[in-house]
Design goal:
14% strand; 4-stranded parallel sheet; 6 strands; 209 residues; Ribosomal Protein L4, Chain: A; alpha/beta; elongated
């Protein structure tokens, strides 16, 4: 697969050939969905918590005797029926949402997500990221001049492009990460995948044998 790169002015530059081992993988949407859901579940913060009747303090004494009062039987003020009592079937921070994802499935889903972006013309390759003025505004203008404009995008950079990472991470609707941290969920959550030429080379080293 061939694709045209974009320069700092947002204009089309040279044409490069993308490795078919990465950008021409057939899509298995069931596998892609399974991995994306699992990765989303693994990021879930288990902070919501309610006390059940065993966690509420007090209630060691029976509120009133069993018979003769004319009122309903009650054994503890910790009952979910009472104000201030425990919560029935409430969320618990002891619940485990983690899911194991086999490495081969995770790898396959990542390649399929990248290939789908290339197929849908939502892959943008930046030609040169050696900017003299490494500010957020400079990098944002370079991105906005490309077809991305002001839509959401995931920017994947090579390990050597740490300065660009610092400048780009504050751009609105953007997420920036090293190529080595790419995953299917983050790619699918953004409309465009923006990657540098050096990032393409790193992908080749990882996936092309």
């Amino acid at each position: 697969m061939k694709i045209e790169t974009y320069n700092q002015a947002g204009k089309k530059g040279k044409e490069i050939t993308l490795p078919k081992e990465v950008f021409e993988i057939g899509a298995n949407f069931d596998l892609l969905h399974q991995v994306a859901v699992s990765q989303s579940s693994n990021r879930r913060q288990n902070s919501a918590h309610c006390k059940d009747r065993g966690d509420v303090s007090g209630g060691g004494k029976k509120p009133w005797k069993q018979k003769g009062t004319g009122r309903a039987r009650a054994g503890s003020i910790r009952s979910p029926l009472w104000k201030g009592g425990g919560v029935t079937f409430g969320p618990s921070n002891e619940r485990n949402y983690k899911r194991d994802i086999p490495v081969k499935m995770k790898r396959k889903a990542l390649l399929m997500a990248i290939a789908l972006k290339a197929k849908d013309n939502e892959l943008i390759v930046l030609e040169d990221l050696k900017l003299k003025d490494l500010k957020t505004r400079t990098v944002a203008e370079m991105i906005y001049n490309s077809p991305v404009e002001k839509k959401s995008f995931l920017m994947a950079l090579a390990k050597t492009e740490t300065e660009v990472y610092k400048a780009a991470k504050n751009i609105a609707k953007a997420k920036v990460m090293p190529v080595t941290n790419l995953n299917a969920l983050d790619i699918l959550n953004k409309q465009y995948l923006v990657i540098s030429e050096n990032g393409i080379e790193e992908l080749k080293k990882i996936f092309v044998k």
